[in-house]
């Protein structure tokens, strides 16, 4: 066991060392000291040896030397670190055991497994996932996070160079290809950082100043060089004075939607004008003054972009970006905000021929992999009958919000159906209430169907979406992490996309509602919590947000489809009219 003085430090304490308080030897020594217990771990910085001052002594938190000497410490592989840290993101209060240990002792497991969360294992076998380890020169600053690209073999950049041009020429008549990259990045609003300073106790204060943070964030954006940026927590004054102009100088066009309440941040989508032109920009406000449920000021942004390449039909890509409510106990609000975003996407992405154009949805969803909200996005359906309001996002292992979701979740006057599309405005009912159903107009019949549908506890959407990331490392089963601060290290950021028909990630039925689709060519690998604590978590000296940027490379595959199924509900009236005319 650690000495009592160290146990009292807790998981949120961090101790920085100066030159007079560093363990040193008379020769280089590439090792560190680690507590032999399962968790948490702690490491010392061991720089180039320096001489001990005459009055050197152990810092007071170690207690008597005999206690420290008798503690169970051991040598381990050295990892460069700038501080001494006790890390446990799942520990909720003093004296509580790590949740991972609790599950191991009680025999409990997470509600989902890596196999259930994703089709990563199948993708690995079929697509032969190739990891290009550190293909760039290691010119990063000391202590920087090292991330690598993961390529799918049949679409890797290396193989694209050696593509069979003859084969490509023969396929050009039926398939046009357009490659591009998309980044999703929560850049951490300075206002939110200062309002939630308890999340950043592990950071040195100079690293949290905006004038230090912004150059780092801009450098990350330059280095990753994405064609489309989906940014969250973009503070309005910083966007107006610095961010927009800096991104425009890099060749981006920027669209921005600020939150509707007092919080001065919002979402931005920026795209390179050399790759895309803007067709439509549609902001989404989740606040409704006439609906008590929707009293939060979160927003979304939906863009319809035109790729700059020539093909036989008009190609378009729908890009959506959002930051859903954080509160783990308000799953009803989260699901309603998501339904509003999906309804706007369905409206923007529905093409003239009745198909949906390829869709990419980015953002901070404040929900973990395997949660009901996550499953709804990926599976396209959710039966929420009897579901506790605090379990929707899966953010808390022992949720405090035990109230059951109401049926329906949102009121009718929101104008969004259980299929997450905008309801068509209904015509006035016939004045004669006693008129027979067979003589009633088709519109009234549809209204009755929709009204009965709203009493159901089943949510649906019409998009066949896949996740860019697997959420677990297949070799170890360790979870990937997109955010890491003093209180937690989890995945809450995602890039979802509509997969091409022949993509391994495509789901059954995708070809029925999408004109072409997207193939995932590669992604920037994520890290584990332990990886991040080797550089003192987030933010740190080189990474100035408490989130990691997500980055994926796609190929747009556009096909000329002779038979399509029209967008459900949005085109239902037109389809019925055509059938009726043919019968007559």
TrEMBL record:
Start and end of every Endonuclease/exonuclease/phosphatase domain? 183-499
Q: Where is this region: Disordered?
A: 90-124
Q: What is this protein called?
A: Angel homolog 2
The record's section on InterPro entries has: ANGEL2_N, CCR4/nocturin_mRNA_transcr, Endo/exonu/phosph_ase_sf, Endo/exonuclease/phosphatase
GO BP annotations of the record are: 3'-UTR-mediated mRNA stabilization
UniProt-listed Pfam families? ANGEL2_N, Exo_endo_phos
Instruction: Record the organism.
Output: Apteryx owenii (Little spotted kiwi)
Query: Domain Protein angel homolog 2 N-terminal: where?
Result: 1-172
Any one Gene Ontology molecular-function term assigned to this protein's record: 3'-5'-RNA exonuclease activity
Q: Where are the transmembrane segments?
A: none
């Amino acid at each position: 066991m650690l000495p009592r003085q160290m146990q009292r430090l807790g998981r949120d304490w961090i101790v920085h060392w100066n030159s007079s308080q560093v363990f040193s030897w008379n020769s280089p020594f590439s090792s560190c000291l680690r507590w032999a217990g399962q968790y948490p771990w702690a490491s010392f910085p061991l720089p180039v040896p320096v001489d001990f001052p005459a009055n050197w002594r152990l810092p007071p938190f170690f207690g008597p030397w005999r206690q420290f000497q008798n503690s169970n410490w051991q040598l381990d592989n050295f990892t460069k670190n700038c501080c001494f840290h006790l890390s446990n993101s799942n520990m909720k209060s003093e004296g509580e055991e790590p949740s991972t240990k609790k599950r191991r002792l009680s025999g409990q497991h997470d509600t989902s497994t890596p196999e259930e969360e994703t089709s990563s294992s199948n993708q690995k076998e079929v697509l032969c996932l190739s990891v290009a380890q550190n293909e760039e020169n290691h010119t990063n600053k000391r202590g920087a996070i090292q991330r690598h690209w993961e390529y799918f073999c049949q679409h890797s950049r290396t193989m694209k160079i050696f593509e069979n041009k003859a084969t490509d020429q023969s396929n050009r008549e039926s398939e046009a290809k357009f490659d591009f990259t998309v980044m999703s990045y929560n850049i951490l609003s300075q206002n939110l950082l200062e309002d939630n300073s308890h999340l950043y106790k592990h950071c040195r204060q100079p690293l949290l100043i905006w004038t230090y943070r912004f150059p780092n964030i801009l450098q990350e954006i330059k280095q990753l060089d994405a064609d489309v940026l989906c940014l969250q927590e973009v503070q309005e004054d910083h966007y107006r004075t610095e961010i927009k102009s800096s991104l425009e100088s890099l060749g981006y066009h920027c669209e921005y939607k600020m939150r509707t309440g007092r919080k001065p941040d919002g979402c931005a989508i920026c795209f390179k004008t050399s790759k895309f032109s803007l067709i439509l920009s549609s902001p989404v406000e989740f606040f409704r003054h006439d609906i008590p449920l929707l009293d939060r000021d979160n927003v979304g942004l939906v863009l319809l972009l035109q790729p700059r390449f020539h093909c036989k039909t008009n190609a378009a890509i729908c890009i959506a970006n959002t930051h859903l409510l954080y509160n783990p106990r308000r799953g009803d609000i989260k699901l309603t905000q998501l339904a509003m975003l999906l309804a706007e996407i369905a409206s923007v992405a529905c093409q003239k021929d009745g198909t949906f154009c390829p869709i990419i949805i980015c953002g901070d969803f404040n929900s973990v992999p395997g949660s009901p909200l996550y499953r709804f996005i990926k599976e396209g359906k959710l039966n929420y009958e009897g579901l506790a309001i605090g379990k929707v996002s899966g953010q808390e292992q022992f949720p405090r919000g035990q109230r059951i979701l109401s049926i329906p979740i949102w009121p009718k006057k929101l104008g969004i159906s259980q299929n997450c599309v905008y309801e068509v405005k209904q015509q006035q009912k016939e004045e004669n209430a006693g008129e027979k159903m067979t003589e009633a107009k088709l519109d009234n019949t549809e209204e009755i169907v929709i009204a009965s549908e709203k009493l159901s506890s089943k949510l649906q959407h019409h998009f066949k979406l896949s996740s860019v990331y697997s959420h677990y490392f297949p070799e170890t089963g360790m979870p990937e992490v997109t955010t890491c601060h003093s209180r937690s290290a989890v995945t809450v950021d995602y890039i979802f996309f509509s997969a091409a028909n022949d993509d391994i990630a495509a789901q059954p039925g995708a070809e029925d509602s999408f004109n072409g689709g997207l193939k995932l060519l590669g992604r920037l690998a994520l890290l584990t919590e332990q990886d991040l604590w080797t550089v003192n978590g987030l933010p740190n000296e080189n990474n100035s947000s408490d989130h990691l940027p997500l980055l994926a490379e796609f190929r747009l595959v556009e096909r000329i489809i002779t038979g399509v199924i029209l967008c459900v509900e949005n085109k239902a009236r037109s389809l019925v009219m055509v059938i009726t005319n043919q019968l007559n």
